[in-house]
Amino acid sequence: MALDTKLCTFTGRMVIVGFGSIGQGVLPLLLRHIDGLTADRITIVTAEERGREEAEHYGVAFHNNPLDNDNFFQILKPLIDKGDFLVNLSVDVSSVALIEFCQRVGAFYTDTCTEPWAGGYTDSSLSPSLRSNYALRETALALRSRFEGGPTALITHGANPGLVSHFVKQALLNIAADTGVETDIPADRDGWGRLAQKLGIKTIHVAERDTQVSNQPKQIGEFVNTWSIDGFVGEGCQPAELGWGTHEKALPPDGRRHEFGCDSAIYLMRPGAATRVRTWTPLEGPFHGFLITHSEAISISDYFTVREGGKVVYRPTCHYAYHPCDDAVMSLHELVGKNYNMQAEQRLMMHEITGGMDELGVLLMGHPKGAYWYGSRLDIDTARSLAPYNNATSMQVTSTVLGGIVWTLENPTRGVVEPDEVDFRRVLDIAAPYLGEVVGAYGDWTPLQDRNTLFPEDIDEDDPWQFKNFRVV
Amino acid sequence: MALDTKLCTFTGRMVIVGFGSIGQGVLPLLLRHIDGLTADRITIVTAEERGREEAEHYGVAFHNNPLDNDNFFQILKPLIDKGDFLVNLSVDVSSVALIEFCQRVGAFYTDTCTEPWAGGYTDSSLSPSLRSNYALRETALALRSRFEGGPTALITHGANPGLVSHFVKQALLNIAADTGVETDIPADRDGWGRLAQKLGIKTIHVAERDTQVSNQPKQIGEFVNTWSIDGFVGEGCQPAELGWGTHEKALPPDGRRHEFGCDSAIYLMRPGAATRVRTWTPLEGPFHGFLITHSEAISISDYFTVREGGKVVYRPTCHYAYHPCDDAVMSLHELVGKNYNMQAEQRLMMHEITGGMDELGVLLMGHPKGAYWYGSRLDIDTARSLAPYNNATSMQVTSTVLGGIVWTLENPTRGVVEPDEVDFRRVLDIAAPYLGEVVGAYGDWTPLQDRNTLFPEDIDEDDPWQFKNFRVV
Ligand SMILES: NC(=O)c1ccc[n+]([C@@H]2O[C@H](COP(=O)([O-])OP(=O)(O)OC[C@H]3O[C@@H](n4cnc5c(N)ncnc54)[C@H](O)[C@@H]3O)[C@@H](O)[C@H]2O)c1
Ligand SMILES: NC(=O)c1ccc[n+]([C@@H]2O[C@H](COP(=O)([O-])OP(=O)(O)OC[C@H]3O[C@@H](n4cnc5c(N)ncnc54)[C@H](O)[C@@H]3O)[C@@H](O)[C@H]2O)c1
């Protein structure tokens, strides 16, 4: 695909809610690739002045008008009607409320994260189970039966969650080819689950190493990141969550099952910002990532579940293992050291980035070749050469948002849809030109490598892929 | 004291073993403050070319000649005789071997750390107990009885270990004055122990926050620190160790007692580089520091032990709670993430530092006013204005080394001596002009502040000063 290809035509109106790093990054892609989507058809509704200049540069209407549960209907109603598109790229705005609104008015919808209203991630009047992404996802999925066949609402379709679900499918096909397992491209969910089972996949990490740096050192009392700081801190304060595979021998001592919903995942009685796991990417090698909760951990484990006679016979463990940029690791360290009292200053790194890349992919483990990583290596210079208003991190997200919007318009009556249910090849094709190198690589890494040397460690030598071996204690 | 005061006269020869950040930083101070110590009387014996330029600048002989167990006698013998002074500021050279050598030839000795020969910190053929600073200290102290009345050998006398032992004494006197407890300056060890007991001190942290930064971002595969990288990694790989107070209700699950020696300390079955504790300094506020083993944790707990009828009736818990500069926190994170396989590159930050300070002091907790921090706030600009070849961190060390050398020459026949046995006022007076602001401050902080909010935590509400409350799990 060339960088000026028109991918589809859309002549409705579009509202972008939230215009931070992702909103700003996606706007040039939408204008570039969607025929008929002219600037005068787009309205931005956001909660601060950030981004006004860019909006004006493109001639797009910009409303600084924070949404809440009481005002969102009045604010959005005049802007969105049947056949229009609401692109939710905000924090602190309930995804479920906006999805329901769109279903009622007949508008398309997409977002990159199932967000609660402000404060929802840390509302300690809710149990950890109810503050989880598992609970948010169940609430969003509960809309399905109410709005079957409604206008497509593609939820959590960014890089991760989003793109990584597509990477998993491509990775499974690649592993099958490389290990001599013959398979068609599975036609349905059960087929995909059985392929993963057949290949022996036990654990899937979303293994990400962001190496972007700047020469502006992080200040004390400043949270620095390459994407939403509110978003990251919010999910970092939620319980660590992971899809819980059938090969796991024992629940972690601080692990809990939810008492409702699909039961594909567990949560730990601690925040992800304070929970580290061992993982691996081809360029970085072994490292410690944070087990930050993400909906893909839950949806992927759910999607690849194989049932026989109603009984779960196979499910992979799946979770995020995230090494954000170094300044964000330091920011987390400071945040946790101050008992989750947010820093006074925030800085979303963009122009000041001097180097580095986002190495983002999925790591599939347990098959005969050990560990296979498949993903995107996008460095900051490449990202900047591809589109304005992006860094390496945002571009992996915005290109997938573009792909999701195109797929939505091509599949307009699917109701509420998760990334795992989308045509992965269509989205990968659209996103690919923006992802830098898309590569697969095998590694002989296991979480038992170099363990038990300085001190005895409590590990399971018999099965390297037990969660207990990944976890850093 | 003025910056050109001559503090004492010394006309013997001096050998400086190791000429890294501390050796290079101390040389100008020694030439400035010790009468008779001319450049031609000093010889540097080190293991690399680093520092040659500075040595040549001052006209000091520079030998790049790494010492080991087989060659050290031959190399040092021609350079050191009765009445000379060996200043050991190296890594990877056995302190005990050099102390014994000095006792035999009749030379003075000082160092800032009890070092083993290369590889000693991570020799996994030794048990964690035998790889500890506790064991190293016992071996050094065992020389005492063999060389009673020998030339003074002042061990572990840098900033910490070293200066902080003197800070503790001054802090105790300040707390006594502020809480209306009448006391003379105690005359002996028992008197100091009883003062600490009377004041109700339960736990002492060496609470340090190094905020020095540069605009040269840490590279991947690079360990960055403001002082010895080998030294820091070495101690970070040793077991976490702490002086173990009589108020502690239960040994930590991974805590062990040693089966020999003074029994003032315990160790954890894990490296300090992976062990975090909650602490507090007046400027930084609450933060997570690393529980890196240091001999002061053991010696202070030992020194302030009160015995009655041979039975221990009082002892404070004491340990390091270290927040190195941000780049060093990132370097540790990378090191631990790669299972303690050392980075290929190292950078000891010096000229490139653009700002920040070393806030280094002792935090005495449990007395009626809660928590009292007493220490040095030295920023990089002040450090640079005071002496060349120093950053804020090294200057707190080198000024104390200077004070210790002067005290040694004034007290020449004490044999092997620890910082706690030195005249704290003499050293504080000498170091003070180089320490920036030396301040005391009370805080209402306890490790229970802001706990138990997002998730239930296993804490002891009845006694905030239990180690279990400080520890980050
Ligand atoms: N799936 C992925 O890969 C992925 C990646 C990055 C970000 N995200 C998600 O995308 C969303 C946006 O991320 P970002 O990096 O652009 O965040 P950002 O923090 O840069 O921007 C958030 C935007 O939301 C706006 N906003 C806040 N409160 C609002 C309100 N009450 N009403 C309307 N707008 C409001 C802000 O003004 C801002 O424009 C977040 O939910 C984030 O978690 C997903
Ligand atoms: N007590 C304190 O406050 C404190 C503070 C900082 C450093 N230290 C200690 O001081 C010592 C030096 O610290 P630094 O920051 O200067 O370290 P550094 O790493 O900058 O320098 C170490 C020096 O030792 C030399 N060396 C290495 N192997 C040697 C050998 N075999 N023979 C002779 N020399 C050898 C190196 O060449 C180098 O000159 C370390 O033991 C460190 O732990 C103590």
TrEMBL record, chains A, B:
Its EC number is 2.5.1.44. It comes from Azospirillum lipoferum (strain 4B). This is Homospermidine synthase. The keyword Transferase applies. Residues 15-154 form the Saccharopine dehydrogenase NADP binding domain. Gene3D superfamilies: homospermidine synthase like, NAD(P)-binding Rossmann-like Domain. Keywords: Transferase. It is an enzyme of class 2 (transferase). InterPro entries: Homospermid_syn-like_C, Sacchrp_dh-like_C, Sacchrp_dh_NADP-bd. It comes from the Bacteria. Residues 158-440 form the Saccharopine dehydrogenase-like C-terminal domain. GO terms for molecular function: homospermidine synthase activity.
